[in-house]
Amino acid sequence: MWTDEQRRRLVLEHEILQREGFTQFSVYWYRSTDTYEASGAASSNSGRAYSLAIPIPSGFPYQRPPMYLTEPFPLYMFDGTRVSSLGVSHQMHTLAPCSNGFVQLCHWRDARWHSNILLQKVFLKGLLWIEAYEQHLATGRPLAEFVLTMAERA
Fold first, then answer.
1. Could you tell me the pTM of the whole model?
2. pLDDT in tens, 84-95
């Protein structure tokens, strides 16, 4: 399923994460299913713990990978409703959740994705989303007020 080029790229992605100080994230290969995932846990500036997961699609690096916030679960908004209930939301920078209810974070538009974008940059946008989410929890204001459109920033 995976080409040698893809496998080399995923090894490189892991090395870049470690070298550039994103050591809380790793690229994992699951031998039994021959699938890849980049994931890890991070703390916000307030000290709260969050987990991000990027299942690697078979078309990577030419296909944009989804990114999910997997912990805490479920994830709630300021008003107590689940973030996953929003589906696609520009105001909260979310895309349709996956079938298990994890919130999918918007990080790049499909049309703007290209093979030179590194998983490190995707995780960076996830970390920015988390900080904006915490501002939402503190103020009730949408994430869009704290960050520019994630898909427009490189």
1. 0.92
2. 998 899 899 999
